[in-house]
């Protein structure tokens, strides 16, 4: 930079006001920092007004490495003379290896050989793109840094000139500037806004823990799963994604700059950059790499009723009956096992209802499944050494007595063992499948819900755990981890936000809190629980999905509480034990969008709220919103009053309306899931995905798109009877009570949204397949198809329908039996034409398409002028209408179009001549 007057003035200004070169990199993230502790670390102590979370103790400049040598795309780095790492001995030599995968994905791997690598098999597929990301390096004053550049715009999308690269055995840090503040993702956390906020320093924990979200206020704690993935929209609207493939306890700080400081306590920094350039392409590229989501069974898109604490089968029958009597579409009640239940499940199957039981991974150490596991040589999470075993617990259980199995406490009355789903002999997975199959032979369930798989353990390291005061199992001795001495796994030098957020070890919080000891081992000692804990839910989901398919012969659906990248291949997710509060309704709207970014589109929240007492208005609004989430379940906790929709007549009525709308659009929702599984697209997606250059959409977290054509603006505030929302510039039509079918001006608008109305829903130019709804997904599937045509500017609309039998296992979309129909509509000055092209021929028999609803149809059609593939067809003029006021054309004729009659079908007609 040339010296000039401006720079000199800036320097003077900085000298006078202590400007800093960039964001501060925290040197004392642990609790209770003070000047003495800070300076002992060789860091700078400079207290400032704490409004934006600026760290008071921060690193001096120059932390990092210099470039020792380069060999092609390998860079050999050497610890420089800058400040040293307070949490371990800096590795003297590390390497950066870069490569381009499939011409599109840039991999930058920082670390050393022979360190732990997460045992996750990604497909690592790529999608061809013309966008190129390139890796460039630079250095000055003994400090090396690198950048990632998008060639087409020459934009730096990742820029580590911020410094602060640290690499030691149990502390690794990387920081970067970002090209914009428009960053989305990282998880699992409860985010108050879709877009991250870089006006302050915030550290987000990432360690899988049985931790219900707190949506009441901004809260950075770690929840059930770990997703080190973000998407960033550059200032010109190009999008890129970044995935850090690391499974250790970790955290990320979002800081002014905008910048990111990422820290993890094991493994390597194995970073993948996805070039986009559209948000949809970023996710497609990410999911091609980590694995695309499973296709849920059609019935799994139905409405589900669940609760923890039906007092018994009679109460459950009564609630299911009440919901059925209210005519509310629904198909999937859930419960835990009771006697007599098997018969009731068979009765429900007769009603086309399905059953999803809940399974926790841990098994009681004096229980038959454990005995069968031991006989089958299945493995459990173990202590490394016999000397670590707690004899007071182990000796209670003859079957566990002479083993190293780490015993803990969960819901069962006695101590439990945790299956080792990383068992490379496959015996544990085989035993697990046998257990599920055995259960299925007694109770013919249709899906599986796996819970408590962080894995959760009660009372770890607690002298007086909560369950001592509980009737269930008051006497089970809690698990104590080696936290008294210097255990490097349970007491690593840096313990991350998952510990420091809570005040640290002084408050008896450890990485092992609510889970097992991190010193544990898996796969006969080849994995350390410290490294693989975050993979537990993912690794349990794999054999669980296999077992479900094997014992039902169908694809069904699995939902899992704990997830990691690629979990969407095997399971969906619900957003955890939320609370019946308006704040939780709001964060669930954001959470579902984030999990679509993470490749888990079969996602939703516990509708009406799990913890706490729900109420009529909240439950009503939640039912209305949840009707747009793929996983749609009303779920309630123990001891709270019933909150199923039949409890309140107003909620029953609103739910019926919302569910009938959902059931009518199930062919569209199913087609979105089909595209997600086949191509890695999202189902529920942020509005900016469709309008990345419209800056008004960048933080529109409380609205969302359902696919690319339907926009939903749920009512999320108590007492609201109108909704303020933003419609990006486009041709929009109302799909709710207010001016249904009419064109709506784009921009910021306020629309009425009383509780008696559907929530605001809009459609933009497209053809959307739907079906006349009934009360179960199974029956709805037999009803005639319909096509909603909402033309865009030039009177055109296109759309697609995917259809299979709704339940067959998908081995490969190349061989899967399904239909694909493409719709192409155009209206001209004197008529209109709809072409349906069968682009994939399946063998499934489908209902006919009997109804076309066309918005913005310019003038009256001649109902006698309809031709189908050149043959005149009689339109039922009794049931078909045209309104010159709303400009809606509604054509309804029995058996109008047999979709499978030809590979190309054209329906055309002309208008009444003027
Ligand atoms: C550079 O890398 C190549 C390919 O990995 C290797 O064969 C060669 O020995 C390396 N050269 C040096 C000087 O390390
Ligand atoms: C991309 O840009 C970098 C420099 O920014 C250049 O070295 C590289 O050759 C470019 N790649 C291609 C394929 O154009
Ligand atoms: C971002 O955080 C700042 C500081 O806490 C706050 O004042 C501001 O309202 C936040 N912005 C948004 C959009 O939430
Ligand atoms: C279901 O519950 C009954 C009653 O508690 C119990 O006897 C039975 O063993 C349970 N069945 C299974 C498969 O767990
Ligand atoms: C750790 O210390 C606590 C109290 O200081 C003690 O009660 C506990 O037994 C100790 N645990 C172990 C594993 O030594
Ligand atoms: C388990 O590890 C022990 C000790 O390293 C080894 O002796 C044994 O052969 C291993 N067992 C299996 C089944 O790999």
UniProtKB/TrEMBL annotation:
UniProt subcellular location: Membrane
Keyword Cytoplasm: no
A GO CC annotation given for this chain: membrane
One GO MF term attached to the UniProt entry: carbohydrate binding
Keyword Transmembrane among UniProt keywords: no
Chief location category: membrane
GO biological process: carbohydrate metabolic process
InterPro entries for this protein: Gal_mutarotase_sf_dom, GH, Glyco_hydro_31_AS, Glyco_hydro_31_C, Glyco_hydro_31_TIM, Glyco_hydro_b, P_trefoil_dom, P_trefoil_dom_sf
Residues in P-type domain copies: 12-61
Family classification: Belongs to the glycosyl hydrolase 31 family.
Name of the protein in its database record: P-type domain-containing protein
Annotated source species: Caenorhabditis remanei
């Amino acid at each position: 930079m040339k010296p000039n007057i401006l720079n000199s003035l800036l320097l003077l200004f900085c000298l006078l006001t202590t400007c800093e070169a960039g964001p501060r990199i925290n040197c004392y993230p642990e609790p209770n920092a003070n000047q003495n502790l800070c300076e002992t670390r060789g860091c700078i102590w400079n207290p400032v007004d704490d409004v934006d979370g600026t760290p008071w103790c921060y690193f001096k400049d120059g932390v990092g490495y210099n470039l020792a040598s380069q060999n092609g795309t390998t860079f050999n780095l050497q610890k420089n003379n800058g400040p040293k790492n307070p949490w371990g001995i800096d590795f003297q030599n590390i390497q950066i290896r870069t490569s381009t995968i499939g011409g599109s994905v840039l991999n930058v791997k920082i670390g050393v050989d022979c360190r732990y690598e997460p045992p996750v098999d990604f497909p690592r597929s790529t999608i061809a793109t013309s966008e190129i990301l390139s890796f460039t390096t630079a250095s000055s004053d003994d400090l090396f840094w690198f950048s990632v550049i998008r060639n087409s715009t020459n934009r730096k999308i990742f820029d580590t000139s911020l410094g602060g690269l640290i690499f030691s055995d149990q502390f690794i840090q990387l920081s970067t500037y970002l090209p914009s503040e428009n960053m989305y993702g990282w998880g699992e956390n409860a985010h108050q806004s879709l877009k991250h906020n870089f006006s302050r320093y915030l550290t987000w924990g990432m360690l899988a823990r049985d931790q219900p979200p707190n949506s009441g206020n901004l809260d950075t704690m770690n929840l059930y799963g770990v997703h080190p993935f973000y998407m960033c929209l550059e200032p010109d609207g190009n999008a890129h994604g970044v995935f850090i493939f690391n499974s250790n306890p970790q955290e990320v700080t979002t800081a002014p700059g905008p910048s990111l400081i990422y820290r993890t306590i094991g493994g390597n920094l194995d970073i993948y950059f996805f070039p986009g350039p559209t948000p949809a392409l970023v996710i497609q590229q990410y999911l091609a790499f980590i694995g695309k989501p499973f296709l849920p069974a059609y019935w799994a898109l139905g409405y589900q009723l669940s609760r923890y604490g039906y007092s018994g089968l009679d109460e459950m029958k009564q609630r299911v009956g009440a919901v059925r009597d209210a005519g509310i579409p629904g198909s999937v009640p859930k419960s835990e096992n009771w006697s007599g239940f098997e018969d009731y499940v068979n009765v429900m199957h007769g009603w086309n209802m399905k059953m999803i039981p809940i399974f926790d991974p841990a098994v009681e150490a004096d229980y038959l499944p454990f005995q069968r596991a031991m006989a089958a040589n299945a493995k459990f999470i173990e202590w490394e050494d016999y000397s670590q075993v707690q004899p007071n617990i182990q000796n209670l259980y003859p079957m566990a007595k002479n083993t190293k199995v780490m015993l803990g406490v969960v819901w069962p009355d006695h101590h439990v063992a945790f299956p080792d789903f990383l068992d490379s002999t496959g015996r544990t997975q085989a035993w697990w499948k046998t257990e599920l199959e055995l259960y299925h032979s007694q109770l013919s369930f249709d899906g599986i819900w796996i819970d408590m798989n962080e894995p959760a353990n009660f009372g770890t390291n607690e002298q007086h755990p909560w369950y001592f005061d509980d009737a269930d199992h008051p006497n089970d001795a809690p698990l104590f981890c080696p936290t008294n001495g210097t255990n490097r796994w349970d007491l690593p030098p840096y313990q991350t936000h998952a510990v420091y957020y809570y005040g640290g070890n002084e408050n008896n919080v450890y990485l092992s809190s609510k889970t097992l000891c991190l010193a544990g081992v898996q796969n006969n000692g080849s994995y350390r629980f410290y490294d693989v804990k975050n993979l537990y839910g993912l690794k349990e989901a794999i054999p669980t999905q296999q077992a479900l398919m094997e014992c039902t012969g169908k694809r069904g659906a699995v939902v899992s509480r704990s997830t990691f990248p690629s979990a969407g291949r095997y399971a969906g997710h619900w957003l955890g034990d939320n609370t019946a509060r308006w704040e939780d309704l709001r964060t669930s709207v954001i959470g579902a969008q984030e999990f679509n970014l993470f490749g888990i589109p079969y996602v939703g929240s516990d509708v009406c709220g799990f913890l706490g007492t729900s109420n009529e208005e909240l439950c009503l609004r939640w039912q209305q919103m949840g009707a747009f989430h793929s996983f749609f379940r009303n779920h309630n906790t123990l001891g709270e009053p019933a909150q199923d929709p039949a409890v309140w007549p107003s909620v029953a009525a609103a739910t019926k309306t919302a569910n009938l709308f959902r059931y009518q659009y199930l062919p569209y929702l199913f087609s979105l899931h089909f595209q997600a599984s086949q191509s890695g697209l999202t189902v529920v997606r942020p509005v900016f995905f469709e309008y990345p250059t419209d800056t008004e959409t960048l933080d529109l977290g409380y609205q969302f798109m359902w696919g690319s054509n339907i926009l939903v603006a749920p009512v999320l505030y108590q007492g609201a009877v109108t909704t303020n929302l933003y419609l990006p510039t486009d041709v929009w039509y109302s799909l709710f009570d207010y001016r249904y079918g009419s064109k709506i001006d784009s921009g910021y608008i306020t629309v009425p949204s009383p509780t008696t109305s559907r929530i605001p829903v809009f459609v933009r130019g497209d053809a959307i397949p739907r079906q006349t709804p009934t009360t179960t997904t199974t029956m709805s599937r037999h009803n005639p198809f319909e096509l909603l045509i909402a033309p865009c500017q030039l009177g055109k609309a296109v759309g697609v329908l995917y259809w299979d039998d709704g339940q067959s296992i998908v081995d490969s979309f190349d061989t899967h039996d399904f239909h694909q129909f493409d719709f192409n509509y155009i209206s001209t000055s004197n008529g209109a034409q709809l072409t349906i092209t069968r682009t994939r021929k399946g063998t499934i028999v489908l209902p006919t398409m009997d109804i076309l609803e066309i918005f913005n149809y310019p003038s009256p059609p001649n109902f006698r002028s309809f031709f189908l593939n050149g043959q005149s067809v009689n339109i039922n003029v009794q049931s078909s209408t045209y309104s010159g006021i709303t400009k809606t054309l509604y054509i309804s004729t029995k058996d109008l179009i047999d979709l499978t009659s030809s590979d190309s079908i054209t329906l055309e007609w002309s208008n009444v001549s003027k």
